[in-house]
Amino acid sequence: MTTLSGPAAAAEGPFFQLTSTAFADNGLLAKKHAGRNPANPNCVGDNVSPPLAWSNPPAGTRSYALIVHDQEGRNGLGVVHWLAYGIDASVTALPEGAGDGAFKGLVGGKNILGQGSYFGPCPPKTHGPHHYVFTIIATDLAPDALAPGLTMPQLLEAIGSHAKGAAGLIGRFGH
């Protein structure tokens, strides 16, 4: 998260931002936020999505989409850890654990496992910490406009010209 100060901040005013009480921007994610998969020795966590909050959305926002993506995953091909969309504009936060797939008020897209829920980080032990980019996108779409189960490319195409703005936050995780 970039913070403006001085005359630039006064000129810009409040900006759309995404934060978490669980980690600072570019901070380390706790082990509980890492993925859990007994078949994968790199998945050492509890698979609990971190709490997220956003503020100062762009005018005309009707819904939000959330993407959690590891661009370093799969040797640079990327890994989608969570797609959630159809989040009503009146919602300004998701509590810890909201990515369990049962949380009301969001629609799940397909993560790396093809599931509509959060799947936490599982970087190889031979890598350094990966950077997990949390992006909240404000849209002018109605919350029920998109079908469940979209992939990231499908979601981005469906949002297209309906995107009003975005805010991001980076969490790092490694062994």
Automatic annotation (TrEMBL):
Superkingdom to which the source organism belongs: Bacteria
CDD domains: PEBP_bact_arch
InterPro entries assigned: PEBP, PEBP-like_sf, YbhB_YbcL/LppC-like
Pfam families referenced in this protein's UniProt entry, alphabetically: PBP
Extent of the signal sequence: none
Name of this protein: Phosphatidylethanolamine-binding protein
Gene source species: Rhodoplanes elegans
